[in-house]
Each structure stands twice: as C-alpha cells, then as structure tokens.
Design brief:
alpha+beta, 51% helix, 5-stranded mixed sheet, single chain, binds protoporphyrin IX containing FE, 3-stranded antiparallel sheet
Length: 442
C-alpha cells in the first residue's frame, strides 16, 4: 500500500495562511523591523488575527502537520504542540534550520553563519558560538565587564531623559547600540555608528531575501571591518573570546559575528518593551524592585527580571517564525512529509493559546519561575539542539539594564498603546511609538 502523504489545506485555507499569517510577519520585517508596518499591524491587530487563522485551521485539520497547496514549493505548518517538540528535537537532521529562504536572507550579510550551515561545518560553527556565548551558563564569564557597561550606558541615558523630560524608543535604541558595540568589540567601538549603519543597510536588503540582489561590495567592506576587529580584539569583548578560540575546519569566525550584532539589537527591543510593560503593571514593578533592592549578585542574576523579559518574549516573540527544511522524507503517524519541504512553526499560535495557558493574554512572569514543564511549546528562543545559543547573554544584559532603570526612576507611558493589566494585551506591541515619562523614584 502506498504511504499516504500528510493532510493538505484547501487552496482557500492556503491563501489564508499566506495572506494572514506569513505576509504580516514578513511585512513587519523578519531581519530588521519596518516601524510603519509594525504600527499598521498594531492598529489592525494583524498578529492576533494570525493566531485566530491558525486556530480555525487546526480545528479543521486536527491531524497535522498540514501541507499547504502551493504550486512552487513544498511547505508545511505545524499545528500540534507535540509536533513542535518533534521538529525542534530532531534538528538539524532531518529538520535543517538552513532553509532556502533563510539562506537567501543571510546571504546579504553572513553567508557562512551557523544558522545556514549543514553537516560538519554546522557542528564546528555551533561549538564556536556556544563557547563564545557561554551558552550553558546563566552568567557569562565576561559578566563582570558587560554589566558595568550596561549600567554606565543606562545611567547616561537617564541623564539625557531627565534633560528632555522623557524617554522615547529612539533614544533607548541609540544607547542600546552603544552597549552592543562595547559588548561585541570593546569600548573603542562605542561610537562606531558607521558599522551599525552598514549592517542595518544589509539587514534591510535581507528583509527582501531573494528579491534583492546581494550588495557584494558593501558586504565585503562590512565583513572586512569585522575581520579587522577580530585581528585587534579588545580584551573583555566577545571578539576577544572568539579570537582566542582555536579555529576548527570551516569555522568562518568572521561570519559568526553579524548575528550577534543583529540579535543583540533585538534584545534592546525586548528590554524597552519590558520596561514599558513594567511601567503599566504596578504589581510586577513592585516585585521587580523588591528583587533589585535585595540583589546580592551585582545584577548578574535577577530571576524575576529575567522572567519578565521571557514573558515579554512569550507575548511578543521577536522571532515569531521558526523555520526548517527537511533534508529527507520524514514519516509521521499521519503520513509522509516529502524531502525539501519547508516547515513553519509560528510561535505566537502556541504562546497565546487561551485554551491551554492560564493568562495567555496577560503579563504573568511567574509562569517562568515555576519549576514545571508540561511540554507545551513556549519557545521564544526555540528549543532542542538548535536553541538560541545567546539566550543567557540576552537575559543577563536585558535584566541588568532593567535593574539600572527601575531601581532609580519611575516610568510612565506618555505616548503609545494602552497596556492595561486588567485587559487582554494586544497581539502586536509597537515599541516605536512609545515615549516614557521619567521621574525620580518615589
Ligand atoms: C531577543 C533576543 C533573541 C531571541 C528572541 C533569539 C531567538 C532565536 C531563535 C528563535 C533562534 C532560531 C533557533 C531555531 O531555528 O530553532 C535563534 C538562533 C540563534 N541565535 Fe538567537 N535570539 C536572540 C538573541 C541572540 C543573541 C544576543 C545572540 C548572540 C549574541 C544570538 C545568537 C544566535 C545564534 C548564533 C543562532 C543560530 C543557532 C543555530 O543555528 O544553531 N541570539 N535565536
């Protein structure tokens, strides 16, 4: 008997996924956010609608993964929680993170990054990333150097905010970029905005994947700058750790660095969004301050603030689409998934499932502090062997920044979306439109 293939969505349902789930996520900017598209998504509640579309689809096709009816490629959507766990646990083989659209995106600024690598090269590059980022330790071994950098930049940010009377996203983003450059390259790079501008230009092209030709000369200039930084790496920077690690075959250290710059940029968005949520959630703010006031770790390990950042990432994941591509046919209980089939895990669908999660649409950081794992996929950093190797570094830097801010000042939302703790939080958060009021801590 021939092996059945997986269930396939009708043409209409396929169009719903393309237009209602994938298009808004792509339009908002997978590699660098497009602020106007984020504003529009927030006004039209596009991300909440996307979750609704997948809920309807799952009710119609309970036996996923679901294949889409596309003439030009094989593509599946994962709708069952246990299938998410299977895909993530069985990565990078047969579910490779090096999917064709990711290859096209990364070609613009980091063609040999671990994200788009396979086979022995992936193994070498992944090991390098884990070593430099100290993946398995909650407190990075360079925390004694990174935390003071964060504190200094946040202090200066507050001086500016007091002068002007408020703190808009754009000021926070600039201060955060200084943190990023100092953490990655060292103090000498603090004001090297040219490097950030070059990367952002390439990231904007990356948003268009195959639809834009690669600017090879800009990419080469950008990667040559990184090569130069690694050759003269400043002690106490991530670059210095990378430069000191013995290189395995095919490690391509230069191509591993842009990911740090770009992903640390996203971490700034998480820190500012968390600050905005704390400014509107007095109970959580109180708990955060209790932790900060009693902290004996020198802001290196603040579990509640780390949980706040994770909860913000649950509500508004910065990487909502986890993508894979099968390297060979994969047998599921319900049928066969062909080789070279794209696999989409749309994390907001699982993160906002009100049937399974208590307070699915509310800010409840405590869920990350409970020592219970019921197997439900809350995966802002993904999971399994391809889990984000920068997770702990993100939590270290964001929680240290939040502690430096909420420990000394009060914040209120002067402009931006209402985030009322007694009502469901919106599906999209538009940090670009937020302006926070800043006053001495009462
Ligand atoms: C808001 C912050 C961040 C979030 C939400 C995040 C999330 C993710 C996710 C979802 C993936 C994809 C994993 C997969 O395909 O299964 C990933 C991969 C990765 N992230 Fe992060 N990340 C963040 C920040 C960082 C930082 C700061 C770094 C480094 C400094 C970093 C380094 C990486 C690397 C190297 C990969 C590729 C891993 C691999 O392919 O093996 N990330 N991240």
């Amino acid at each position: 008997m021939p092996t059945p293939t997986l269930p396939t969505a009708s043409a209409l349902d396929t169009a719903r996924v393309l237009m209602g789930v994938i298009l808004p996520a792509v339009a908002e900017g997978p590699i660098i956010r497009r602020p106007r598209a984020v504003g529009l998504a927030a006004r039209l509640e596009l991300d909440a609608r996307a979750v609704g579309i997948l809920q309807q689809l799952h009710a119609r096709y309970p036996d996923g993964p679901l294949l889409l009816k596309l003439p030009f490629r094989r593509q599946a959507v994962v709708l069952a929680p246990e299938d998410v766990n299977t895909v993530l646990a069985r990565s990078p083989e047969p579910f490779s993170p090096a999917s064709s659209e990711k290859l096209a995106v990364m070609a613009h600024f980091q063609p040999s990054n671990v994200l788009v690598s396979r086979g022995p090269e992936r193994t070498v590059r992944r090991a390098l990333q884990e070593q430099v980022l100290d993946t398995s330790h909650p407190v990075h071994h360079l925390a004694d150097r990174f935390v003071p950098v964060v504190e200094e930049e946040m202090r200066q940010l507050l001086v500016g905010a007091e002068h002007s009377g408020s703190l808009p996203w754009s000021d926070f983003a600039e201060a955060w970029q200084r943190v990023v450059r100092r953490v990655v390259f060292g103090d000498h790079a603090r004001d090297d905005t040219e490097l950030t501008t070059m990367l952002n230009r390439l990231r904007k092209d990356g948003n268009w994947a195959f639809l834009k030709p690669v600017r090879r000369r800009t990419r080469e200039r950008f990667l040559a700058r990184i090569r130069d930084e690694l050759a003269h790496a400043e002690p106490g920077s991530l670059a210095s750790v990378l430069a000191a690690v013995p290189e395995g075959d095919g490690a391509e250290p230069v191509d591993q660095v842009p990911q740090w710059l770009f992903a640390l940029d996203n971490s700034g968005m998480v820190a500012f969004r968390t600050l905005t949520v704390l400014a509107t959630h007095p109970q959580a703010m109180e708990a955060a301050r209790r932790e900060v006031d009693a902290d004996a770790s020198g802001r290196r390990f603040l579990p509640y603030l780390r949980a706040c950042a994770l909860e913000v990432l649950r509500l508004w994941p910065t990487t909502p689409m986890i993508l894979r591509q099968t390297t060979q046919p994969v047998q599921w209980a319900r049928g066969l998934m062909p080789a070279r089939c794209g696999v989409l895990i749309y994390s907001p669908y699982f993160h906002r499932d009100e049937h399974h999660l208590r307070d699915a649409h509310n800010f409840s950081p405590e869920r990350w502090l409970r020592d219970e794992d019921d197997g439900w996929p809350l995966v802002p950093f993904s999971d399994g062997p391809v889990v984000c190797p920068g997770k702990q570094l993100v939590l270290l830097l964001t929680s240290a920044a939040l502690a430096s801010l909420v420990g000394v000042r009060d914040f209120s939302v002067e402009e931006g979306q209402p985030l009322d703790p007694s009502r469901p939080l919106p599906g999209t958060i538009d940090n670009y439109s937020v302006r926070l009021g800043v006053s001495p801590r009462m």
